[in-house]
Amino acid sequence: MMDRTIKIVDRVAKMMDRTCKIVDRMSKMMDRRAKATERITPAMERTTKIVTKTAKPTNKTPKERNPLIHIKEQNFLKNIKDI
User: Fold this and answer.
1) For residue 29, which of 37, 39, 17 has the smallest C-alpha distance?
2) How far is CA 75 from the centre of its chain?
3) Helix, strand, or coil here: 61?
4) Which of the residues in the chain have pLDDT under 70?
């Protein structure tokens, strides 16, 4: 009877060791993820600020929004017509 209980206790101890190893691995992974999110979060906040600033709708026409591009297009068209 004693041998049987010792075997069972040994088996349980092995299983506990395995679960401890798995839990340790999982905790390491979670720590890595937490560190990564800490690094990424400020950058994400910056990008969201930039996007929200630039994504505001405007009632301007493309010519009013960026006159330089419009001038370049006109010059390009003039050059084509000259040829």
Assistant:
1) 37
2) 42
3) coil
4) 51-58, 60-70, 81-83
